[in-house]
Amino acid sequence: VSSPPEITLVNGAAADTLSTTDRGLQYGDGLFETIACSGGRARFLSLHLDRLARSCERLQITADLATIQTEIETLASGADRSIVKMIVTRGPWQARGYSFTGSEVATRIAFRFPWPAEGDTSAGVRVRTAQMRLGENAALAGIKHLSRLEQVLARAELRGGSESELLMFSSSGRLVSGTMSNVFIVRGDRLVTPRLDLCGVAGVMRRVVMREAGSAGIGVEERVVEAREIFEASEVFLTNVRLGAQPVAVLDGRKLNVGPLTRRVQELIAKAADG
Amino acid sequence: VSSPPEITLVNGAAADTLSTTDRGLQYGDGLFETIACSGGRARFLSLHLDRLARSCERLQITADLATIQTEIETLASGADRSIVKMIVTRGPWQARGYSFTGSEVATRIAFRFPWPAEGDTSAGVRVRTAQMRLGENAALAGIKHLSRLEQVLARAELRGGSESELLMFSSSGRLVSGTMSNVFIVRGDRLVTPRLDLCGVAGVMRRVVMREAGSAGIGVEERVVEAREIFEASEVFLTNVRLGAQPVAVLDGRKLNVGPLTRRVQELIAKAADG
C-alpha cells in the first residue's frame, strides 16, 4: 500500500488543488510519467522524457520539457528513494467542449511519494488473465495518457484473489500487457514482447530490457503475440520501473519456471540502473 | 464559442479547484452529464439521472443521486437558459494506483454555463467522416465517462474546414456516432441508429428520439450499421441535448436531402421538451 504524496507542485508551486476547468479532469486530456528515484536521482530519466516528448507530440500538447526535467530532478534529489509522478495536461479549457485551439498552456502536476513498502517479489508473482479487454486505437497506442478506465476496472478483478497482476488482451485477442506492467515471454533462447501498435503503454522498463538484452547478445522480438503463446512460453516476466523484472511464478493457477533468462534480465536491469 | 462557467460547485460548495489526488484527474475515473436547461428547468432530467445511475453501477462508483438531482435542479432554476454539466468522479484516491477499494467517496463537480451563442443549424450542417477510429470495449460502451481523448483528437480534424461535426467509425468499421452527437439514418420509412454495445455514448437525446418516434408510430431500429449504409441513407441527422436533431445537409462534400422524417423528429423533440 502506498502513502499520500509528500510534495505536490502545480506548475512549480506547492499546491494541493487544480482548476476544475483543467482538460486533464474534464476529458482525460493529458499524459503522465511515473519515475523510480534512488540515491536522490531519477532513474532512466532520459527515457521518461523521451516518451513524454513523443506523447506530447502525438496529442499535440506543447509542454516545456526543460522545466519538467528540472522539476523531476529537484524532487528526486530531496529523498533517498522515492516515486515521482509527473502529470502533464493540455491545461485549462479555453471554451467548454472537446475541441482545442492549440494555444492552450499545459499544466504540470508533480508529486513525490515515499517508496512504497512491499514484499520481495523477486521469487515470482501470481498472475491471472483479465476478463477486461483493451480497446484498439492506433492513435493512442503506446502513450501513457490519462484515460485509464480500462486499467482501473481490470484491477477490480484482482479483489479477493491471491494474484498481484493481470495479463490483458486486446479486443481482437492479442496479448498486450499487465494492468501496470509490460510483459515478456521466453521462446527458445529469445525474449518476445507484444508490439504495442494498437493498444497498451510502451513502458520505460520495457525499453530498458529491450536495449540491455540486445546489447548483451540476447535476441529480442517485438511482435504480435497470440494468446496461446503465453501458455507455451518457458518463462514469463513483467516489467515496470518500480519493480524491474518480476518473474511470473503462477499463471492462471499453473506453475511456471523462474528461469535463467529472467534472472539474467534482472542482473542487466540492476547494472543499467546503477550506471 | 462557449463562455466560462458562471457557477462551479465542488461537493455542493462554491469552488474553482479540485484535489490533485482526485481519481477523475489521475485516471479519467468518473462520469459526466451535460444537461440542457430552459425556463429554469433541467430538460429530460430523469433520463440523465437514469444514465448516470446505470453508469455509476458499471464503474462501481457509489454516488448520492438524490443530492445530484437537487443540485442540478437548483443550478437550472437560477437562469432562463443554461447548460449544466455534472461530473461525478470516484473521488480522491486512498492510495496511489489504479486499484480502488470501493469505499472511496465520490466527488461531484457541477458547472452552470450560459447557453452558447450559435447560428441556427436547423437547415442542416456539414459533416465529414473522421479518420480517428473508436476503440471497442464492451465494458465502457454507452457510458459517458471522463476518458475522452478519442473525441478530443478527432475534433482536431475539423480545424480549417467548413464542417461542424465528424462521423466516427469503430476500429472494426462500424458506424458509431459523431464526436459529440449520436447519429440516425433513414432507410425507407424507418429510423436506424447504431447499436452502442462496443463503443460510443448512448446520448439522452438519442433515447428521446427513439422513445418519441416509437410512440408516434415511426419504426426505429437499433442495430449494427455498416459504413456503406450511411451513403445509401435518404436522410441523416445528429442528436444531442443542446441541438436536438440536426439534419446533415452535406456529408463528405455530397449533398443530402433534409427530408420529412428529420423534420418530423424535430417536431416530436420540441413537443417532448415542452412537456
Output the helix-strand order of chain A: EEEHEEHHEEEHEEEEHEHEEEH
**Overall residue-averaged pLDDT value of chain A:** 95
* Whole-angstrom Rg of chain A: 19 Å
Portion in helices of chain A: 25-40%
The shape of chain A, in one word, is globular
Question: What is the count of helical runs of chain A?
Answer: 7
How many strands appear in the DSSP assignment of chain A? 16
Instruction: Report the span from N to C terminus of chain A.
Output: 29 Å
Structure description:
The relative contact order of chain A is 0.14. The model of chain A has no long low-confidence stretch (mean pLDDT 95). Chain A is globular and about 55 Å long. The first copy, chain A, contains 7 helices and 16 strands. In chain A, strands 8, 9, 10, 11, 12, 13, 14, 15 and 16 form a 9-stranded mixed β-sheet that branches. A 6-stranded antiparallel β-sheet of chain A has the order 2-1-7-6-4-5. In chain A, helix 5 packs across helix 7 (260-274). Chain A is of the alpha+beta class. The first copy, chain A, has helices at residues 23-27, 45-59, 65-77, 149-155, 204-215, 227-232, 260-274, and strands spanning 7-10, 13-14, 17-19, 30-38, 41-42, 81-89, 107-114, 125-134, 165-170, 175-178, 182-187, 190-194, 219-223, 235-240, 244-251, 254-255. At the A-B interface, strand 3, helix 1, strand 6, strand 7 and strand 8 of A face strand 3, helix 1, strand 6, strand 7 and strand 8 of B.
Keywords:
homodimer; 275 residues; alpha+beta; 9-stranded mixed β-sheet; 7 helices; 16 strands; globular
What can be said about this structure in brief?
The structure is a homodimer of 275-residue chains. Chain A has 275 residues and is of the alpha+beta class.
